[in-house]
Write a structure and sequence with these properties.
Rossmann fold, 14 strands, three-stranded antiparallel sheet, 11 helices, alpha/beta, six-stranded mixed sheet, 444 residues
C-alpha cells in the first residue's frame, strides 16, 4: 500500500515567508541609501572638525582635553540639523599626535531601518532594526596650502549654460573654502579668470605696464586683454608663432620700445566680468560669479595664459594683495582648473599698429591649440597641477573629440581630465574636482 503526505498546508507559510523576503529586498535600497547618506554627513562633519583643530594643534601644548573639546564642539556644530532625530551619531575615537601634528578621528551613526527589519521575523533577533555606518578622517598639519586658478569659458555658446556654470564654480568654492571654517583657518585661495576672445582687466598703473602701448586707454576703465606677443617685431611671417607662453613680467618704463613682450588690447569681445586674483574672500568670489555673462569667440590659449599668470609669483606687483607665493615655497601647491565647451577657434596677431583676429577660418584652430598646449607645457615645468573640464555643448562629434583631445593633452594626467555631457554633469564635475582638492588637506 502506498501512502502520500499531504503538503497543501505548507504553501501558506512559504508564501508568507517569501512576501517578507520580497519586502526586505524591495526596500533594502532605501534603507541602505539612508545609511549611506548618514555616513557622508558624519564624514563631512569629521572633516570640518579636523580642519578647524589641525591649524592650532601645535598650540594645544599636548592638552588633549582642550583639543578633544574643540573637536567635539566643531563636529556637533557641523552635524546640527543634518540628520533626522531618529538617527543616532557620535564620535567613536579621536587620536591626536602632537609630535607629528596629525589627527585621526572616527565617527559612527545608527540609522533605523524601515524595510530590512522585517527579516527579524525570520531570525527572531532584532539586529536588523538599525544599520551602523562608520566614517573616518585624517588631517595632517604639514599638508600644503592651495592656490587655485579657475579659468572658465564665457563664450557665446555658453549663453544658455551660464547658470549651470555659476552653480558649478560655487560648488567648487564651497569645497575648498567651506563657509563654516573661519577665514584665518582656510588653507586655499582662489582666482577666477573668465575668458572668451580675451580677458577683462581694469585700466590702472600695473595693467598699463603689460598692455600694448599703441592702444589709447585714457578713456577706458577696463579693456579686453588678448594674447601676448613674443617681441616688438611685427611681420606676417611671424604671425603664426608670435606668441610668448611664459610668465615673465616685463616693465615698459618710459620707452615702450624697450618692452620685450606685451599683451594685445581691444575695447570689447571679452566677458564683462573682470579677472579676480587669488583671494579667500568668499563674498568677492560670489560677486564675480554672479556677474558671469557669455559673449565672444574662444581663444582658449589666452584663458590658459592668464590663468597661469594668476599663479605666477613674477606677477606679484600686478596682482597686488593677491600676490601668489614663490614656486620654491613647498608649503603651497598650485592648481589650475581650465574649462571650455568647444574648440579653440580664435587667435590674434599684430601687424604694424593693428591687432587682427582670425575666427573659425584657415589655421585659427590649429594655431590656438598649439599656443594653448605651449602654455600647458610651461605650467607643468613649474609643477602646477592642471585639471581640465570639457563640457560638450556641440552636436558635432568630430569637433568635440578634437577639442577634448587638446584638454587631455593639457591636463597633468588622465585622472586630471573631466568630461561633462549636460548641465547637471557640469555642476557635478566641478563639485568632484573640489572634493578632490579638499582631500589634499584630508587623507582617509
Amino acid at each position: 500500500m502506498l501512502f502520500f503526505r499531504d503538503e497543501r498546508g505548507v504553501v501558506a507559510p512559504i508564501t508568507a515567508l517569501m512576501i517578507v523576503v520580497l519586502i526586505a529586498i524591495a526596500g533594502a535600497s532605501i534603507d541602505f541609501g539612508r545609511a549611506f547618506a548618514a555616513k557622508q554627513k558624519v564624514a563631512q562633519a569629521l572633516d570640518v572638525a579636523a580642519l578647524q583643530v589641525i591649524g592650532n594643534i601645535r598650540y594645544y601644548k599636548k592638552d588633549r582635553t582642550k583639543a578633544l573639546k574643540d573637536f567635539e564642539d566643531a563636529f556637533n556644530a557641523a552635524m546640527t540639523g543634518k540628520l533626522p532625530s531618529s538617527v543616532w551619531y557620535s564620535i567613536s575615537d579621536v587620536q591626536f599626535d602632537f609630535v607629528e601634528s596629525t589627527i585621526d578621528a572616527q565617527g559612527k551613526a545608527k540609522v533605523p531601518t524601515y524595510f530590512i527589519r522585517v527579516l527579524n521575523m525570520i531570525s527572531g533577533e532584532d539586529d536588523l532594526d538599525t544599520l551602523t555606518v562608520v566614517s573616518d578622517t585624517r588631517a595632517e598639519y604639514g599638508t600644503p596650502d592651495l592656490e587655485i586658478s579657475v579659468v572658465v569659458d564665457l563664450t557665446g555658446s555658453m549663453n544658455s549654460h551660464v547658470k549651470s556654470l555659476q552653480n558649478g564654480v560655487e560648488q567648487l568654492i564651497a569645497q575648498v573654502l567651506p563657509s563654516d571654517i573661519p577665514r584665518d583657518k582656510l588653507r586655499a585661495k582662489v582666482a577666477i579668470i573668465p575668458y572668451s576672445a580675451g580677458v577683462r582687466l581694469p585700466v590702472n598703473k600695473e595693467t598699463r605696464k603689460v598692455l600694448d602701448p599703441d592702444f589709447n586707454m585714457r578713456s577706458y576703465t577696463s579693456v579686453c586683454a588678448l594674447e601676448r606677443r613674443s617681441s616688438l617685431k611685427a611681420s606676417k611671417a611671424e604671425k603664426k608663432w608670435n606668441f610668448n607662453p611664459k610668465d615673465n613680467y616685463f616693465y615698459g618704463g618710459a620707452d615702450p620700445g624697450k618692452k620685450k613682450s606685451y599683451f594685445g588690447v581691444m575695447r570689447s569681445g571679452c566677458p564683462s566680468t573682470q579677472v579676480q586674483g587669488l583671494t579667500q574672500d568668499r563674498a568677492q568670489l560670489e560677486r564675480r560669479i554672479k556677474s558671469f555673462k557669455a559673449t565672444g569667440y574662444t581663444a582658449g590659449h589666452t584663458g590658459l595664459n592668464w590663468g597661469y599668470l594668476a599663479l605666477s609669483p613674477s606677477w606679484g606687483s600686478f596682482w597686488g594683495a593677491a600676490k601668489p607665493k614663490s614656486y620654491s615655497d613647498k608649503s603651497t601647491r598650485k592648481i589650475l582648473i581650465f574649462m571650455t565647451d568647444g574648440q579653440f577657434v580664435t587667435y590674434f596677431y599684430k601687424n604694424n599698429k593693428t591687432w587682427f583676429g582670425r575666427n573659425y577660418s584657415g589655421d585659427a584652430t590649429s594655431i590656438s591649440n598649439a599656443r594653448g598646449l605651449r602654455v600647458c607645457e610651461e605650467m607643468k615645468k613649474r609643477d602646477i597641477d592642471v585639471y581640465t573640464l570639457f563640457y560638450k555643448t556641440t552636436r558635432n562629434t568630430t569637433s568635440a573629440k578634437a577639442a577634448e583631445q587638446v584638454l587631455k593633452d593639457c591636463a597633468t594626467g588622465p585622472s586630471y581630465h573631466f568630461f561633462a555631457r549636460d548641465k547637471s554633469d557640469l555642476v557635478q564635475m566641478f563639485e568632484v574636482i573640489g572634493a578632490r582638492l579638499s582631500e589634499l588637506f584630508l587623507s582617509r
